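Troubleshooting: if your tokenizer reports a length mismatch, compare your output against this known-good record of 128 residues.
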Amino acid sequence: MRLRSELALAPLDLRPRHLVALTVLRDMEEVTQQALATTLQLDGTNVVGLLNELERAGLVTRRRAQDDRRRHIVELTPEGRTMLAKAEFVLAAVEDEVLSALTLEQRDQLFELLRVATGADHSFGDCC
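Known-good structure output:
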């Protein structure tokens, strides 16, 4: 599934880490760069590199926080929202292909088991 997902995202010039960051930014709205690093469980340096890539692509913007000029606020751009929607559509098609042998009930059961196994406190379908 991972390989198929990566191949499906390639024409969009996205990697899984981009998709995860875009999803978090959509769900959290505007967030500090530091809070994003914490949420993604990444070193700040790696988040800077990731955001540089997304910013060059026009998918996110960074601006200084008004209350603390040392902090950066990161937001998804309209282009980022559009790209995320496209990526989610592509990945849904991959998921349908990979899980085509399962009934809808079996898929729901699989997702629930994965949610329990990972300790996720949100719907697995909301994940990247």
